[in-house]
Amino acid sequence: MADADLPLLQRFFEENPQYHLAVQAAPPGPNAAQEEFDSVPPSDWRFDKKWLLRFADAEGGMIGMADLIENLFVDGVWHIGLFIIARRLHGTGRPWYDALESWLRGQGCAWIRLGVVAGNSRAERFWQNCGYREVRKRLAVPMGEQKNDVRVMVKPLAGGSLREYLSAVARDRPE
Q1: For the segment 47-71, what is each residue's pLDDT rounded down to a tens digit?
Q2: Which residues, other chains included, contact 55 with Cβ-Cβ below 8 Å and sequence gap of 6+?
Q3: pLDDT at 121
Q4: What is the CA 56 to chain-centroid distance, rounded?
Q5: With the C-alpha atoms ordered 72, 84, 63, 125, is the resulting torsion angle positive or negative?
Q6: In whole angstroms, what is the distance from residue 75 CA to residue 85 CA?
Q7: Top CATH class, 3-172
Q8: What's the mean pLDDT in 135-158?
Q9: Residue 141 class from Cβ within 10 Å (0-12 exposed, 13-18 middle, 19+ buried)?
C-alpha cells in the first residue's frame, strides 16, 4: 500500500473494528490508518523495511491487510505485526494467510514471527493451526487503552529448529 491507500485502509479498519476492540479496547480512531502507516519498530531494533499489503477481492475491493517487518533483528526473520481479514470472511482467512506465507518464502523469509494477544482464542487457534509455536510471553504490553499479555510465536519457513531461532534472536528467548 502507498499513501494514496490511506482512505481505503481507514475505511477497512472502521468497517472491521473487531481487532481494535479486542486488542486496544476501543474502535479504530480517525487516524488509525495513518498511525498504521507511520508505526515502525523502536529505533534500537534492527530491520530493513516495513511492508503494508492489501488483499483484494475479484472486484478490487479491500478484504484484508497485513503489516510486515522485513529482517527484524536478523536477516531472514520477518514479523507479522497485523493480519486482518474482513469480518464477513472470518473463518476463510487461511487461503489469504497461505498466499502471504508463499510470498514471504519468495522474499527469502526463513522465519515468521508474530505476537498474539493471550486470551484472543480465535486468533490463538488460527496461528497455532498455521503451524506457529510460542517461544515466550510478554506481560502487560500497552496497547491502546489497555495492557495485554502477548504470546510471541514463530514458524520456520526454511527448516531450522527453535534452538537455532532462539540462538539468533535473543529477545525471544524464554525468561
Answers
A1: 999 999 999 999 999 999 999 999 9
A2: 62, 63, 64, 65, 66, 85, 96, 99
A3: 92
A4: 18
A5: positive
A6: 28
A7: alpha beta
A8: 95
A9: middle
